[in-house]
């Protein structure tokens, strides 16, 4: 008689891993990062490096404090993904200590105090970004001029701004973003067509922004193809943005921007393919994801139109995060053998 | 024929190495251990005594209830004992077994042959029951009880969708005539208007053999279905062939369908025409852990160790012994179990093919599992509800609709034991329901008792009050005075 170890079925190993999923997300972000460097200088690379460093260090510290094993959780790449997404929301010359505070809010508060990987109710990267956005509105609004308009800042200039103290050397090139301009439209008494001629606007969105956005969309299509994300969230989000702004634009193009301008400015495309698609804090049912995407789109527009912040993506995502568990409960798909629902 | 898709499922490497050789005869072992419970239902009752000589095919135990199934002697010999032995079953419990010492071959015991054309359906169905036939696809449900109600459509299931298992493939290649005759027989018993034999499109030789055996006859239709796990699941196959679904919580009979495995059909045919009871079956023996995989014609009661020996023995990499397929099969702690009617496959997985149970990460709700779920469930939600003990949500989200196919486990990046968790949660939820029912009954008992005590107390109080009333009432006092007066007067 020969004895064997027993275990429950199925007996075959699982193919994918969390590390693989997160690795694909990082890979898909590369084109966007490359264009970011092209248009806004190498600062973003330094910020990403800093954020990843802080993120992994804080993750390790929290795992130790919580008595969790380090190796499986540090190698899952979820902290680097969170760090990169957070860094991509920052102006490329943000001081290092803001990055540290943001990553603390993201990894320590939003992730580990909620239970760590898989248990966070809110998107950690967006929590980190919102915290620093509220605390340091001045620093978070200092975008350098893009390539072709005096920018981008060189490497030394960028590093001095990030690691330096005192008055930033890049003040001379700091500019209001296209979304800032759109927001201040009314107060300046200008029409859209007048400010659209400003050099900071490109063909569709802001100069540089539109290309970065397109690169994010490309990465998103890659993730869709590799089945890392699913179509409902980005389609819901982008469809909501386009369909909701189109009638207003047609009604009065001088006041209401062209729909694609909303898509290609700010963080709309980053959110559509990389942030609202975060599986942990988003919806998990097919219809739920669609509702989630539409919700983020609508709230983003509402905040852009009436809110105090130029871009509302982060707030929109967090608000929908809060609603996601409830949406999931009420959007369960039809089970095999169940009568179609009315 | 128009086919329909089922949701989810996986395309898995076939590993049908066992199908490469023709059917081999199983080992001749000196002692057979024949369990009295080899089916889903109550055990049969032994009708032989220790020491008694039995002929091959002779009944060892009779079905005493409708859901029970008779057991017959797989070989001629002597009953050594009737004793409790470990059974190859998920419960891990022991059960009564008849131990038969193999003797000299004798004239086999047979039921009287019946004419399948002229005998009435009920007699044929009774024959299926008397021959001890159960579903040979692995579930071992009593076949006769599935044939009791007339159906519109008979599906004979040859879609052997789990990797490694190849016994149905070999059966269809080598005994196609029995399969087709069996399909006609079952069609007649349930008076079905239509009979289909479904075979996966990767089993080309089986399809050829059946097509040849069928010839020009058009009464039974051969359908090639896509190779996709779990194509051969009863509910999935019905959906693929008819586009209809078995209602939630219901059975195929609710939509007029019955599904029988190809081997069951062939066994039913032999029971009717040759009077053969079910005492042997085809078992595929495969996996990297056996030296020479193959499909064996095995006597019920043969030890699995002997069967592995017949397949060339274990290889160095043998790591897990599985009864059934790699997705739904039962891992056995040792190889000293008998082959039963339910045993379609003995799989010895190599160390490289076995899941490592240790490192799992929390669920990240990626949704790979709901894409793969053929029951259209949300395994990620069920997993969270099961861990939180949210029973009503588990029920609403279809815990009992889970067919435990294991697709979700295979696509989970966190390597969570999803199917195992759901199997466990089903038991838990049933226990929870029983506790809830018992609590309600206890509450009713308590309330009835309290009501009775209150009623009794009230009655006692009323009696006391009545007595006190009768004692203290003015009339009573007056009457007592009168009585006393009268007594005194009487004395004086």
Q: Helix tally of chain B?
A: 14
Oligomer: heterodimer
Tell me, briefly, the overall form of chain A.
globular
Count of DSSP-assigned helices of chain A: 16
Distance between the termini of chain B: 121 Å
Strand segment tally of chain B: 17
Pairing-aware structural class of the strands and helices of chain B? Answer: alpha/beta
Determine the mean pLDDT of chain B: 92
Shape of chain B: elongated
What does this structure look like?
The complex is a heterodimer of chains A (342) and B (492). With 342 residues, chain A is mainly alpha-helical. Chain A folds into 2 domains: 16-175, no CATH class; 177-332, no CATH class. In chain A, 60% of the residues lie in helices and 1% in strands. Chain A has helices spanning 18-40, 43-65, 70-74, 78-89, 96-112, 124-135, 155-163, 178-183, 185-188, 192-196, 209-225, 232-251, 259-264, 268-275, 286-306, 313-329; strands at 143-144, 174-175. In chain A, strands 1-2 form a two-stranded antiparallel sheet. The N and C termini of chain A lie far apart (59 Å). In chain A, 52% of the residues are buried. The mean pLDDT of chain A is 87. Chain B has 492 residues and is α/β, with parallel strands linked by helices. In chain B, helix 4 (176-189) packs across helix 7. Chain B has helices at 121-130, 143-146, 167-174, 176-189, 204-214, 234-242, 262-273, 304-310, 368-372, 379-388, 391-396, 407-411, 418-472, 474-491; strands spanning 24-25, 31-35, 45-46, 53-54, 59-62, 71-72, 77-86, 94-102, 153-158, 194-200, 220-225, 257-261, 280-286, 294-299, 318-323, 330-331, 345-350. A 6-stranded mixed β-sheet of chain B has the order 1-14-13-17-15-16, sandwiched between helices. In chain B, strand 13 (280-286) and strand 14 (294-299) form a beta hairpin. Chain B contains 14 helices and 17 strands. At the A-B interface, helix 1 of A face strand 15, strand 16, helix 9, helix 12 and helix 13 of B.
């Amino acid at each position: 008689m020969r004895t064997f170890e027993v275990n429950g079925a199925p007996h075959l190993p699982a193919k994918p891993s969390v590390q693989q999923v997160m690795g694909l997300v990082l890979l898909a972000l590369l084109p966007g990062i490359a264009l970011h460097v092209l248009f806004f200088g190498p600062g973003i690379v330094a910020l990403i490096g800093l954020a990843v460093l802080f993120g992994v260090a804080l993750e390790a510290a929290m795992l130790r404090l919580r008595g969790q094993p380090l190796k499986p959780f540090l190698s899952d790449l979820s902290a680097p993904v969170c760090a990169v997404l957070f860094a991509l929301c920052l102006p490329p010359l943000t001081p290092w200590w803001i990055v540290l505070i943001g990553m603390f809010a993201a990894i320590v508060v939003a992730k580990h105090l909620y239970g760590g990987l898989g248990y966070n109710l809110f998107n950690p990267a967006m929590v980190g970004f919102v915290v620093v956005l509220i605390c340091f509105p001045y620093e978070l609004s200092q975008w350098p001029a893009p390539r072709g308009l005096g920018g981008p800042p060189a490497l030394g200039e960028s590093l001095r701004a990030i690691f330096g103290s005192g008055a930033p050397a890049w003040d001379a090139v700091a500019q209001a973003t296209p979304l800032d301009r759109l927001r201040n439209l009314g107060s300046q008494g200008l029409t859209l067509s007048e400010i659209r001629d400003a050099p900071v606007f490109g063909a569709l969105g802001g100069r540089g922004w539109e290309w970065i956005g397109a690169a994010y969309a490309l990465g998103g299509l890659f993730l869709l193809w590799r089945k890392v994300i699913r179509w409902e969230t980005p389609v819901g989000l982008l469809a909501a943005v386009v369909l909701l702004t189109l009638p207003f634009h047609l009604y009065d193009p001088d006041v209401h921007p062209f729909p694609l301008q909303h898509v290609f400015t700010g963080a709309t495309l980053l959110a559509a393919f990389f942030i609202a698609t975060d599986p942990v804090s988003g919806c998990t049912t097919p219809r739920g994801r669609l509702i989630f995407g539409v919700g983020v789109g609508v709230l983003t527009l509402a905040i852009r139109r009436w809110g105090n912040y130029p871009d509302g993506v982060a707030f929109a995502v967090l608000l929908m995060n809060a609603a996601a568990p409830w949406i999931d409960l009420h959007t369960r798909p039809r089970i095999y053998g169940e009568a179609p629902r009315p | 024929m128009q086919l329909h898709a089922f949701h989810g499922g996986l395309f898995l490497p076939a590993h049908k190495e066992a199908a490469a050789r023709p059917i081999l005869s199983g080992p001749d072992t000196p002692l057979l251990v024949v369990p009295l419970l080899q089916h889903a239902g109550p055990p049969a009752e032994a009708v032989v005594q220790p020491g008694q000589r039995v002929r091959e095919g002779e009944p060892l135990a009779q079905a005493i209830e409708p859901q029970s199934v008779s057991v017959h002697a797989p070989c001629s010999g002597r009953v050594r004992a009737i004793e409790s032995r470990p059974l190859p079953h998920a419960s891990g419990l022991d059960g009564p077994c008849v131990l038969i010492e193999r003797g000299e071959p004798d004239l086999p015991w047979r039921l009287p042959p019946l004419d399948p054309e002229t005998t009435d359906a009920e007699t044929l169905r009774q024959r299926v029951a008397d021959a001890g036939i159960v579903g040979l696809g692995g579930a071992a449900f009593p076949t006769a009880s599935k044939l009791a109600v007339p159906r519109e459509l008979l599906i004979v299931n040859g879609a052997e969708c789990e990797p490694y298992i190849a016994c149905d493939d070999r059966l269809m290649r080598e005994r196609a005539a029995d399969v087709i005759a069996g399909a006609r027989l079952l069609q007649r018993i349930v008076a079905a208007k239509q009979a289909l034999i479904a075979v996966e499109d990767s089993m080309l030789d089986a399809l050829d053999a059946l097509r040849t055996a069928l010839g020009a006859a058009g009464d039974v239709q051969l359908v090639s279905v896509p190779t996709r796990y779990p194509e051969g699941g009863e509910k999935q196959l019905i959906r693929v062939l008819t586009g209809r679904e078995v209602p939630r919580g219901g059975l195929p009979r609710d939509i007029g369908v019955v599904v029988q495995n190809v081997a069951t059909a062939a066994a039913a045919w032999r029971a009717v025409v040759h009077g053969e009871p079910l005492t042997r079956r085809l078992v595929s023996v495969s996996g990297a852990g056996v030296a020479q995989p193959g499909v064996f014609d095995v006597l019920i009661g043969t030890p699995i160790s002997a069967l592995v020996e017949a397949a060339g023995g274990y290889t160095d990499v043998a790591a897990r012994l599985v009864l059934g397929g790699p997705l739904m099969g039962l891992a056995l702690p040792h190889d000293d179990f008998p082959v039963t009617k339910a045993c379609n496959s003995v799989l010895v997985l190599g160390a490289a093919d076995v899941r490592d149970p240790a490192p799992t990460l929390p669920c990240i709700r990626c949704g790979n599992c709901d894409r793969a779920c053929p029951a259209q469930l949300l395994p990620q939600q069920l997993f969270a509800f099961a861990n939180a003990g949210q029973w009503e949500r588990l029920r609403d989200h279809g815990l009992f609709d889970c067919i435990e196919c294991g697709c979700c486990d295979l696509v989970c990046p966190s390597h969570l034991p999803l199917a195992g968790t759901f199997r466990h949660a089903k038991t838990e939820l049933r226990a929870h329901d029983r506790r809830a029912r018992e609590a309600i009954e206890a509450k009713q008992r308590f309330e009835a008792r309290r009501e009775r005590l209150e009623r009794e107390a009230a009655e006692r109080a009323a009696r006391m009050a009545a007595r006190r009333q009768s004692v203290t009432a003015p009339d009573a006092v007056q009457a007592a005075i009168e009585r006393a007066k009268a007594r005194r007067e009487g004395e004086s």
